[in-house]
UniProtKB/TrEMBL annotation, chains A, B:
Origin: domain of life: Bacteria
MF annotations from Gene Ontology: kinase activity
Protein name, as recorded: Sugar kinase
InterPro entries: Carboh/pur_kinase_PfkB_CS (IPR002173), PfkB_dom (IPR011611)
Domain Carbohydrate kinase PfkB as annotated: residue spans: 23-280
Keywords: Kinase, Transferase
A GO CC term attached to the entry: cytosol
Annotated source species: Pinibacter aurantiacus
Pfam family, one: PfkB
Length: 307, 307
């Protein structure tokens, strides 16, 4: 029941209206691993780092059941670095610096020991890389989920279209769904995108929650109303990790179980934004996660008797 | 178990990305009455119209159990007229024309026959007018709900603050909640506003749903994801009408029942936006309303077993 998580392990420097960090640990696969390892182990990580990625961080991940055989360490280059500044609404941000470093050469090789994994989470990367990972799997995983972003729609649309044909679930945010489909209405966008390959589409709307589409069905998961969103970095990847962690734990890929998985992903994401980087994700306990999930139940639970 | 609805009965001219109307029927009390009369009758209307307001429209309302004794007809003036243009996202709009006409002299008098009403819905009007209506009630209603807007925060804040002390539930949209409280976080805004008088606060977020706050509790109702939002005019008042209609029908002002009322309000609002003005509200049947409410149940219903 293992889960492969492909994505970046990196450094971020973040400015928000509440504060500013120097280089802290980030990367999509990092957030996915911290979130998913609450539910399922091992997580089989596929990534690339430079000489500067801390040994200590690697050990923290190993302790949580994250296998690192698929993480390439490049001895003479630095890790991927991103720096950004969030606006007051925390839904929009400006990129200040993108230093690809090791990511420029990323050409992931799936270790033999990862073969047979039932679940595959493809973090946001060049679509050709995501495709290469799918093609390296000797047995197709039960569920392949991918994230992407507007950047690839602009510079690699043909490759993105090819990769979309190979995945089960696409996760994007609302503006990416609109760009990918050319439709403003998210309902119309979803119909269009599901014609491109994915049988399921998750549209993330940040503080406004998330939508899950499948055929003619739709499910909505709210975001928890928070007093402060301290740092949204990694919230989407944490959501993905919580989602995949629950799916891999239960081995149930039905629409009904995906609903539950989205609530769990939303709960994990609500922790992520409480502190800079993955700090909060490293602290939380099972009891805290369960209590947070119960808050989601209370948040949307109502009683209707149609008479 | 009657419900008093105070507000405008007016003409609107609307431009949206989908089309354009000439003068059509509008006004907050009109939408409240069309929505609430699905659940409770009579609705006791308090408003003011000019010589140009159609007799036919008055008759349509009467047929739905709307009492018009509290609607003043001014023989030598025109009805209130508003014209606006919506942007593509349908969450923002520009006002093109505001002709107050009869509304400049609106000084509502509650008819003797309305005394004893248990529920009072105060549509968006000058806070001093809203206050005067509350003070005219010889027995305080069980629940007083008011709507307001940023305009009054800018030009009549002291009167607004006085009126807020007299109501149970305030309904505003997210930007109004932020302006009224001076807080960006809606959770913080809600805490601040509930110190100003209302024990309950409903924050309407348009396509992103609505939040209900009370003490330390919060409930979230989604908006139904729609293929097209044709015309959002009146959606907020329709929401209020559905909410109040359910509360007045059930006579239950508990937090639990308010959750249900918000779902019903959201369902009615989802019809409102499907056609220009109140057109769709006049057509819908009980079966269609029940089916729509069931869609809300399906939209948010999920199964969590914490193990």
């Amino acid at each position: 029941m293992s889960l492969i998580a492909v994505g970046t392990m990196a450094f971020d420097a973040i400015e928000t209206p509440f504060g500013k960090t120097d280089r802290i640990i980030g990367g999509s696969a990092t957030y996915v691993a911290y979130a998913a390892s609450n539910f399922v182990q091992p997580i089989q990580q596929v990534s690339i780092v430079g000489y500067d990625f801390p040994e200590e961080e690697m050990n923290d991940l190993k302790k949580r059941g994250v296998e690192l055989e698929g993480v390439e360490v490049v001895k003479d280059k630095k890790s991927f670095f991103w720096s950004g500044r969030y606006h007051l609404d925390m839904n929009s941000r400006d990129t200040l610096v993108t230093d690809l470093n090791v990511l420029a050469d990323f050409n992931p090789v799936i270790p033999e020991s990862y073969q047979g994994a039932e679940f595959l989470m493809l973090g946001n990367l060049a679509p050709a890389i995501q495709k290469s990972v799918i093609q390296q799997m000797k047995t197709r995983p039960k569920l392949v989920v991918m994230d992407t972003m507007n950047f690839w729609m602009e510079i690699a649309m043909p490759e993105l279209e090819e990769t979309l044909k190979l995945v089960d679930v696409l996760m994007v945010n609302d503006s990416e769904a609109r760009q990918l489909s050319g439709q403003f209405s998210l309902v119309k966008a979803a119909k269009q995108i599901m014609k491109m390959g994915p049988k399921y589409l998750i549209i993330k709307k940040g503080e406004h929650g998330a939508l899950l589409f499948h055929e003619n069905e739709v499910f909505f998961a709210p975001a928890l109303p928070l007093e402060d969103v301290f740092d949204p970095t990694g919230a989407g990847d944490t959501f993905a990790g919580g989602f995949m962690g629950h799916i891999a734990k239960t081995k149930d890929i039905s629409f009904e179980n995906m609903k539950t998985a989205i609530i769990i992903g939303s709960a994990l994401a609500s922790f992520c934004v409480e502190k800079f980087g993955p700090t909060r994700l490293k602290e939380i306990t099972k009891e805290q996660i369960d209590a947070r999930i119960q808050q989601f139940v209370d948040l949307v639970n109502f009683d209707i008797k149609l008479v």
